[in-house]
Amino acid sequence: MILTQIEAKEACDWLRAAGFPQYAQLFEDMQFPIDIKTVRKDHEFLDPDAIESLFRRLNTLNKCAAMKVEISRQRKRSDESEDEEPCAISNKWAYERCSQRWSRLESLDGSPGEEGSSASVPDSPRLKSTELDNVMEHVNGLRRLVSQWTEKFSDDGDSDFANDTTSPCPSFPKEIHLEIKHSEGKAENLSTVEGEQNCGHIGDLPYVTDLETGSHSSRHIRRHWSTEESGNLENLSVQIDNQSAAHLNRIQKLALLKLTALMDKYSPSSKQGWNWTVPKFIRKIKAPDYKDKNVFGVPLLLNVQRTSHPLPRGILQAMEYLRRHFLDQVGLFRKSGVKSRILSLREMNENDPSNVCYEGQSAFDVADMVKQYFRDLPEPIFTSKLCESFLHIYQYLPKDQQFHAVQAAILLLPDENREALKILLSFLHDVVAFVEENQMTPTNIAVCLAPSLFHLSTLRRESSSSSSSSRSSQRKYSLGKPDQRDLSENLAATQGLAHMIIECNRLFQMPDYCLEPCGDDLHNQKVLSEGASNQTTPIKHSTMLISLENSMQDLLRDAKEKFKSWVACSNVERVELAHKKVDDNYHVRLWKASTEIDAAPKLILQRILTEQHQWDPSLQQAKILETLDDETDIYHYTTESMSPLPARDYIVLRTWRTDPQSGTCILAATSVNSEGATLHGILAQVLLCQYLIEAAGSQKSKVTHVCRRDTRGRTTEWYNRVFGHICAAELLRIKDSFQYLHTKETKI
């Protein structure tokens, strides 16, 4: 019975991870067994292997239900996963946030097949026909209002429509008080003069004012795509780096389903057990303290929290040094360097990670140091959880399936591991491009680097300690004598790394099986683009300005209440860090960082608005595209990433206020569409960015930074574990930019 409970729990865990949480809920609600045929109708877009893997888990739960096996409904959730957004890959199921339950939607076309499939799930909640009629009537009413508004707008023009008292759209509230001088007049003008024009786009506000009650809801802006960008939407959609957090959430579930289907079909370990699952390495070891380490032996997650980059800058500089000068060096990565010089290079990186000079260094010394960096990571770049799966792909799967499997496995890696792997594979691809000069083929490179990247010796020690502690086994490893399994893993690691080097340009694109289910998302983005192009610029900007005014009121209210509704984090030095969950479709937390800065509020506001180059080392370019008034503009800036990761463009509408009595300054910004802007990378989205700068004594201020961004290409887990640290680091760089100025003045 205990074994059956374990199987049931693992099946439910897999269903949630692979995009079928509704069936896990039904099992926990004791509504199993279910009709498998119904499931097939809900997932007709899946291939036969994926359906077979799904059926395998559901049949296990049907068997457990027949045995009256129950599992606990309470699942242990870590701090990083507590904001995991529910996602079902079938569009015939919907999640109700209020009840936190999944319900099956009855088909709108009323086809017999759909009705039968809905009825076959015992007691499943359904959308009643009367409710559907009410919804459709409401939608039709909205359509009529929009049609009337559009006709009126096109016939009468902007000015006539603004003064039309019979407009079908209700106006915004007459007053928006920000409790800071100069804001009341501007907000009042916006609401009375332009409010009626903006009512057609109420749903796009980051903080929408309820038209009947005047209350605020936390609904954030959906970015409008420019006409030029929408023309290239299909090309951008194939890049993983350009996907939103919500989109990546769905893609990862499809990737897990794909990998499971292949492993179920080909992996011997799957045939021995009841199913294949992602291996779990549970180590009950106290987390080490990395305060005395800067580069070597530091986890990738901690490095990205410290530096905002997946790899230490010194390691990237080493790769660039080899790329510029030594790609034609015979035996690069094969010939060993000198130990004393390698040790000196390691010390240079540890002492000053951001300022390492490799000029004049031996290519073999630098290459060996790079190899040692990946070997010294606490866990392999492929992670302890997935490393064995990567090896199984090249041990058991047919060659024509290996690319799809490894592409899916890469999608399941943490974002910092996936980005670091992309940087490394791109560099190694450049090395093997000079094979005629350096004699390093993909296989030769893989033979030299695979043990360091896969941590094969560590895997063997763990395997031997868990599987057998016999004297012969211990003697074999003490003598370094490999057995057949060791040889098989070595060969798989070598072949796998060589294959990934060759295919590195395709590995990080959207898999084919993820494109079709995402067609609706692409269509929605096109519709948004067309809708945005039909709006006039004053309407869009005034709507967003009202939203930003409301968000500033919310920030002032939270500050007055000492941010009591926020969840504090205690692991960041010199900064108070907290976060808040926002219930919308973006799957991104709202983060807050606070610290004191030795400067007056106006100076800090000026530094943020016009001197970003003094505190943002990743800034490539910045310019003001348009000045709307003395306290409002449209700002475009680009931040660089480690090559080959793309740069990120941000186009934001900024507005700020200053209270002349208290000296308090407040700034709010959000992404806005701007035609004609030249993009240098992928267009990221600022959902909300705020700075509250309050005087805290003579030439001292308390600065609170609130931020919520979708940088593209990162999952919800990355925003939960990393983005708060990036916000804190940004605030500290602003603080340190003033300390440098004070030090310079003192010396003078």
UniProtKB/TrEMBL annotation:
Cellular component GO terms held in the UniProt record: membrane
Protein name as catalogued: Rho GTPase-activating protein 7-like
PANTHER family given in the database record: RHO-GAP DOMAIN-CONTAINING PROTEIN (PTHR12659:SF4), RHO-TYPE GTPASE ACTIVATING PROTEIN (PTHR12659)
MF terms in GO: GTPase activator activity; lipid binding
Domain START span(s) in chain numbering: 537-719
Rho-GAP domain sequence ranges: 298-488
Protein transport keyword on record: no
One GO BP annotation of this record: signal transduction
Comp. bias regions, Low complexity: 464-477
Membrane topology: Peripheral membrane protein
Region (Disordered): 106-127, 463-484
Domain of life: Eukaryota
Key words of the record: GTPase activation, Phosphoprotein
